[in-house]
Amino acid sequence: MTDVTAQPKRSLWSRWTSSSPVVVAALAMLLGLFIGAIVIMTTTPVVLDAWRGLFHGWGGPGHALKVSFDNVGAAYRDMFTGSIFDPPAFWHSVTTGHDWTNALTPISETLTYATPLIIASIGVGLAFQTGIFNIGANGQAILGGILGASAGSLLHMPTIIHIPVTLAAGILGGVIAGSVPGLLKAFTGAHEVIVTLMFNYVVVGMLYLSLFSTALQLPGQSNDISRTMDPSAQLAPLFGVSSGLRVNYGLFVAAAVVVFAWWFLERSSLGFEFRITGANPNAARASGINARAVVILLFLISGGLAGLAGVVQAAGTTHFIDGGFLIGNAGIGFTAITVALLGRNRPMGIVWASLLFAALGVGGRAMQASTGIPLDLATIIQSAVVLFVATPVLVKEIFRLKAAPTAQIQLATKGWSS
Amino acid sequence: MRLELRGVTKRFGGFTANDQISLTVEPGQIHCLLGENGAGKSTLMNVLFGLLHPDDGEILIDGEPVKFSNSGEAVRRGIGMVHQHFMLVPVFTVAENVVLGFEPTKSFDRLDHQRANEEILQTSRAFNLEVDPNAVVETLPIGLQQRVEILKALNHDAELLILDEPTAVLTPQEIDALMEIMRSLAKAGKSILFITHKLKEVKAVSDVITIIRQGRVVGTADPSATESELASMMVGRDVNLTVDKSPYAPGNDVMEIRDLVVRDNRGVAAVNGVSLTVKAGEILMLAGIQGNGQTELVEAIVGMRPVESGSITLNGRDITHASPRQALDAGIGHIPEDRQRDGLVLSMSVADNLVLNTPRNAPFARRGSRNLGAVRENAERLVKDFDIRTTSVFESAGSLSGGNQQKVIVARELSRPLSILIASQPTRGLDVGSIEYVHAQMVRNRNEGNGALIVSSELDEVLALGDRIAVMHAGKISGIVEPTTSREAIGLLMTGSTEAMAHD
Fold it and tell me: In chain B, which residue's Cα lies nearest the Cα of A405?
């Protein structure tokens, strides 16, 4: 019966505020910052001392509050100026025409970090939209980096050919890494989460093997570090090497990927079939969509994008790969899973989510340098934002937005199966 | 128990699901609540059972106003509910299910099986509800499972039973048995609130009929009212209950099924040697109790289930091992049994759902790129032609009523060039207006010279639509009969008895 779930008519404003994911994301950001503020207040010694002073008669609650606000304010100010721009420095450059490097470094760094993240997240988001969990994006990106760095350092050709060849090698690496779980799932029904997750470790092994191989290892080195990619294979800084700004032509690659992903999902027949498969695999089957072909193609595309992210990272930022390439905190393929979820798997949503994550990471480092508050705070804020985005009901309740009727809350998840 | 509702109103935001509903159920009375899907019957029952809280009005039990904040309180005041979808634990025995939540225990909190069994036997004898207390529920036929639900309510000392669309899943014989049980319960002084949209049953069993439409009581009727009187009150306009068909003029054989064997998910031969022929310009109805292989047969035809042996040919072409894509392209239209699971993507727009199985066909795509203009034009045309009620073709399919969701599927399938239409339970859960419409479309398709194989467990539908009727039992065709055959004879074939053929 439809009675219970019948949609009541509501005003445009309340419908917009209660349904728009943008509003929820913005409020989630606000809540994330609020949680970060609590963490700062409860972990920063100066602030704790100020509160402790209440019991020792050193100062009133007004003083303690002031110290708290000062510290939280300073931390967030440093985060902002370290990742977006510093208004006085910016103004100085505008009026004098000098020191542009200083003024633009924060935003340049944020864009540099966001570039491969956008590409990898779009690959993961595409898989999510198809109902497939590609947890192997990091391994696919690493293999892309390995093949891309090899093509970039071992082949020698003019820029106009070398860059496409390098990027293609990266995509190929991702395709290879993605095709293994894709074929396994399509032909044996193996669960993609397990296969992709495990394949990450295989690729890490391949990374070390290749870095110690005579072909790729930097000559005269015993460390796990590769040859430097030819300048003709590098994605050059947008404003030239002399600008000191690291933001590079990879940004255009990311932009092209965003446009492609939008077209693919919204306009292509194959993308439509992918979305049908993701939203309702039973209906997809009844509609004559070949699930096996969808799985294989999805893994080729998603893996290819992750590989592209890997090679863009290598060719645009590091120009070589080493034993720490996309390992641990730098594992953009893992961050991409969170970013894709935060961006609701849609290309533009992923762009904003990537920029947010990059800004929090870059700004967190600046904050750590100037205030001594550890970088982990940025991670806490990132995680809190994702948590709040994942629980829109909670966000709406906190801000007294028209809450969704409980009948509409979907407790059933699709789980791990696709 | 005497139950009275006075001006009960329930709103969801600006939408009024129940508007000032008043009715009285006297002790020992079978009171029927008749209304289409979406009229507000289920909302009212949920209010009554304490699952929803009324915004206005009051509920009185034996003259005393009551307010339930949950279903437990409703149960304690003697209200029992038999849900449309049974709330039973399939792997428990009948006795365990019946006493669940009120278990008689021995020392150390052990379940007292003996006392449980005795309690159940006592109740079932008192009301002629025979069922083995030790049987595991999942092994019982649906009709008996329903008895367990009723037993459960009675065991909790229900004085008023709410039966929510109880006949939807039953065979004609089981429906008769249920009616008998309802009468004997009423005779024993229990009050019964019977919710349905099926007119025959209403007339057969009720003492008083209250008809609701769009959340309001539009009138009461006597069981002596004619079916079309009841139907027009329910729908709000005159309804054509019979299906107008042109004379039966079959053409060539369109589809031929020979000695088909198909296994179900457990590996059992659910279709075990079926041979059928569907001709152009005819509707072949496939009747039978659910679970006798109809689902597997249809899945095999449309390419969704592998064929073990035998053959299927369409216009002389072998399609035994066709994929779903090949089956669709060969000219098979498919209206699946579970429209929300197999037929639609609820989160996608009506327009996208209307091209769900033809996204690559001209004019909807060119060189891998979708032509959204053509998709939209197609949707606007079909929404108009097939009277799909939606505010926009970009509305999600999930926001449509069940009847309109089904119209989306019917429109999609019948707007393609077809050789044969395969439909499973095409009107299940639909309101009278939508049923009328879907039937008319199927007949139109037949009159245009296409074949159709329609699976239905609703005998009314089988008799109204069919040019020929095949009855399926235990994976085999137990008989193929004329639509003039009596309901009883078809009912017997449904249970596998071939005696009925002798009468035919």
Answer: B12
Residues B196 and B231 in one domain: yes
Sheet with B309-314, side-by-side order of all strands: B269-279, B253-263, B309-314, B317-318
> DSSP for A59-81?
S-HHHHHHHHHHHHHHHHHHHHH
Same domain, residue pair B294 and B327: yes
CB contact at 8 A, B388 and B412? no
* Under 8 Å between Cβ of B447 and B263: no
User: Which H or E run includes B55?
Assistant: none
As given in the structure block, the two tokens for residue A212 are: 């110690």
Domain with residue B466: its CATH number is 3.40.50.300
How many residues are listed for chain A in this entry? 418
> What pLDDT is stored for residue A390 in this prediction?
82
Q: How confident is residue B296, by pLDDT bands cut at 50, 70 and 90?
A: very high
Q: What does residue B37 show for φ and ψ, rounded to 5 degrees?
A: -60, 130
CA dist A185 to A298, A417, B306, Å?
Answer: 11, 11, 20
In this structure, which amino acid lies at residue A154?
A: L
Same-domain check for residues B380 and B249 = no
Range of the domain at B426: 240-331+417-504
- For residues A154 and B424, what is the distance between their CA atoms, to the nearest angstrom? 62
* Smallest CA–CA distance from B298 into chain A, residue: A286
pLDDT of residue B144: 85
B406 interfaces chain A, CB cutoff of 8 Å:
no
Residues A372-399 have pLDDT tens digits of 888 888 889 989 988 888 888 888 888 8
Which of B179, B211, B235 is the endpoint of a domain?
Answer: B235
- Identity at B147, one-letter amino acid code: R
Residues B90-142 pLDDT 10s: 899 998 898 887 778 887 778 888 888 888 888 888 887 888 888 898 888 77
**Percent over 90 (pLDDT), chain B:** 48
- Residue-level pLDDT at A266: 93
Non-local (6+) Cβ contacts of B503 within 8 A are: B486, B489
Contact state of B343 with A286 under an 8 Å Cβ cutoff: yes
Please report, as a single letter, which amino acid is at residue A42.
T
Does some domain include residue B299? yes
The answer to whether the CB of A170 falls within 8 A of the CB of A247 is: no
Q: Which residues of B61-98 are buried (b: 16+ CB within 10 A; e: fewer)?
A: beeeeeebeeeeebbebbbbbbbeebebeeebbbbbbb
Q: Which of A10, A270, A283 is facing B356, going by the closest CB pair? A: A283
Interface of chain A toward chain B, CB-CB under 8 angstroms: 1-4, 6-10, 267-270, 272-273, 275-276, 279-280, 282-283, 285-290, 405
Q: What is the pLDDT of residue A396?
A: 80
The answer to whether A269 touches B365, Cβ cutoff 8 Å, is yes
Give the residue from A361, A284, A387, A350 showing the smallest Cα distance to A126. A350
CB within 8 A of B160, min separation 6: which ones? B1, B3, B25, B78, B79, B80, B190, B191, B192, B193
- Report which residue type is found at A202: V
B223 and B320 fall within a common domain:
no
Instruction: Kindly state whether residues B376 and B468 are assigned to the same domain.
Output: no
The stretch B182-200 carries a mean pLDDT of 89
| Number of domains present in the structure of chain B | 3
Residue that is last in its domain, among B358, B391, B416? B416
What ipTM is given for this predicted complex?
0.84
- pLDDT for res B320: 95
| Pair B408, B274 in one domain | no
d(CA A283, nearest CA chain B) in Å: 4
Q: Which of A128, A285, A287, A345 to mutate to test the interface with B (most CBs of B within 10 A)?
A: A287
